[in-house]
């Protein structure tokens, strides 16, 4: 009896003949592979088995599954059939194929096929991987090979053999970790399976095999779990607590890559389980590690020389050895101001009074570790201002007139040098006089100072002259607002030349 697909082929041929007519020469097409139909599947009678074939002309039957194990549309298939004589692991691979040709394993009859075991390796998505499926003696398994992501086929190199599971493949056979530091090995994940109730861990891939470790610490401690590999992606290492697969609770998940290790606090006397899970999307040869976790480290960074009350200080929290664990910090700025339980690491703060302040941070990571740091800040504000510079509006050459200044201190008593300059024809400044004054600690009070200046013929030649007054702090102190410690003013000059008065 012809299959549904053969009926469609005959019908298609009839239509083609009617359309083309007898005058159109026949066009030769390559024949589909011999195992194109489910009924003609290649029967594998013994292992190991391997075959190479071209699946480019493969087609799909109406009763074939319409989606493969990657949920891609099935447009073409070739089939293999195997009935094991004993329970064990069936390992299969398309490693040497010229493209990814996904393999899905089924049991049952054509038109009523069921995935062999979606949770334990009945899907081979990529040619870079091997997959091992736990099989039962006497059960017939149908292996469907499809085109790449639902497209055409290619050169298939398909192999099957027996597999031996790692000794710690199952949860009940978890390898004991007796002391730290511990460095494991990279298992043959192609024969590692997934148990029915096994948690997905942090790989969350239905194609990932796993192996197990168990650790019972003699003292409560913080443990760092890591995966060392020359890659940024790959397997994962998750820590669980519980007594059986059904009641495991995941505590942490370490992945391959810089700073992808994870810290977890373990309680003395309690047994924890480490699930080392493959990631079939990446072929990273990762090695699991367990060590005592380093201390969380924090510091307050920035430039904290003498500061003033005018501007906020940009405090910045630096954190290391946190392993991407969120860090919450309490800030105490030493003046009664606090910021509590924040994850914001930039904390500008403005002090309103001069003094010495100790800034302290207490930080805690989400994994339970804590650290503290402090830094001392000196706030010492100085700000003198030349509030007025009054010069004659006009003057004659040879005439001596007063130049009046008003100066005050905005912060405390200050001994200040007041300097008066006059502009030269070439644009430089010449000193007229200077005077030390003691400014009181009263911001509302100005101190008045008077200089005298005799106008010269050079001033007449310019038509105007300009004066500059500067207030300068003693002992190299820095003015917090240098823009207000100088003033300039201009006088118009006329009249005949006279000698400069002293």
Number of helices: 2
Percent of residues in β-strands: 35-45%
CATH fold assignment of the largest domain: Jelly Rolls
How many angstroms does the end-to-end distance come to? 132 Å
- Secondary structure: number of strands: 34
Kindly provide the radius of gyration, computed on alpha-carbon positions and rounded to a whole number of angstroms.
43 Å
The low-confidence runs, each spanning 5 or more residues with pLDDT under 50, are 1-28, 497-502
Relative helix content: under 10%
Q: For the record, what CATH class of the largest domain applies? A: Mainly Beta
Total domain modules? 4
Please describe what this structure looks like:
With 502 residues, the chain is mostly beta strands. Helix content is 5%, strand content 44%. It is built from 2 helices and 34 strands. Strands 1, 3, 5, 6, 7 and 9 form a 6-stranded mixed β-sheet that branches. A 5-stranded mixed β-sheet has the order 11-13-18-15-16, with no helix packed on it. The protein starts with a helix and ends in an 8-residue tail after the last strand. Residues 1-28 and 497-502 have low confidence and may be disordered.
């Amino acid at each position: 009896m012809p299959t549904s697909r053969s009926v469609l082929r005959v019908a298609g041929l009839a239509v083609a003949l009617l359309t083309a007519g007898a005058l159109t020469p026949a066009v030769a097409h390559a024949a589909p592979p011999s195992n194109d139909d489910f009924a003609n599947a290649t029967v594998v009678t013994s292992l190991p088995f391997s075959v190479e074939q071209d699946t480019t002309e493969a087609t799909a039957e109406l009763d074939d599954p319409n989606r493969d194990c990657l949920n891609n549309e099935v447009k073409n298939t070739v089939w293999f059939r195997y009935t094991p004589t004993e329970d064990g692991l069936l390992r299969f691979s398309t490693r040497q194929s010229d493209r990814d040709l996904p393999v899905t394993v089924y049991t049952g009859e054509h038109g009523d096929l069921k995935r062999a075991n979606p949770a334990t390796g009945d899907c081979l998505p990529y040619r870079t991987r091997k997959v091992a499926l736990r099989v039962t003696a006497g059960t017939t398994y149908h292996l469907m090979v499809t085109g790449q992501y639902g497209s055409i086929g290619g050169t298939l190199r398909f192999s099957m053999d027996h597999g031996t599971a790692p000794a710690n493949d199952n949860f009940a056979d978890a390898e004991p970790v007796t002391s730290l530091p511990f460095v494991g090995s990279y298992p043959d994940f192609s024969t590692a399976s997934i148990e029915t109730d096994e948690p997905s861990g942090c790989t969350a891939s239905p194609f990932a095999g796993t192996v197990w470790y168990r650790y019972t610490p003699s003292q409560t401690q913080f443990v760092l779990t890591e995966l060392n590999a020359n890659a940024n992606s790959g397997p994962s290492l998750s820590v669980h607590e519980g007594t059986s697969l059904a009641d495991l609770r995941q505590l942490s998940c370490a992945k391959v890559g810089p700073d992808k290790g994870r810290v977890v606090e373990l309680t003395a006397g309690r047994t924890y389980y480490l699930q080392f899970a493959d990631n079939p999307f990446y072929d990273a040869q990762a090695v699991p590690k367990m060590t005592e976790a380093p201390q969380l480290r924090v510091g307050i960074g920035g430039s904290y020389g003498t500061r003033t009350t005018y501007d906020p200080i940009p405090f910045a929290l630096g954190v290391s050895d946190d392993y991407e664990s969120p860090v919450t910090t309490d800030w105490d700025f030493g003046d009664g101001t606090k910021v509590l339980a924040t994850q914001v690491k930039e904390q500008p703060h403005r002090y309103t009074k001069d003094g010495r302040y100790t800034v302290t941070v207490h930080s805690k990571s989400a994994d339970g570790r804590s650290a503290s740091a402090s830094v001392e800040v000196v706030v010492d504000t100085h700000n003198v201002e030349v509030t007025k510079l009054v010069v004659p509006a006009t003057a004659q050459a040879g005439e001596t007139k007063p130049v009046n200044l008003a100066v005050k201190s905005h912060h405390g008593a200050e001994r200040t040098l007041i300097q008066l300059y006059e502009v030269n024809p070439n644009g430089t400044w010449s000193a007229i006089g200077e005077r030390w004054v003691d400014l009181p600690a009263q911001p509302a009070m100005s101190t008045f100072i008077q200089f005298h200046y005799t106008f010269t013929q050079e001033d007449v030649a310019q038509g105007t002259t300009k004066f500059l007054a500067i207030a300068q702090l003693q002992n190299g102190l820095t003015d917090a607002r240098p823009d207000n410690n100088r003033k300039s003013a201009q006088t118009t000059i006329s009249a005949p030349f006279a000698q400069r008065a002293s």
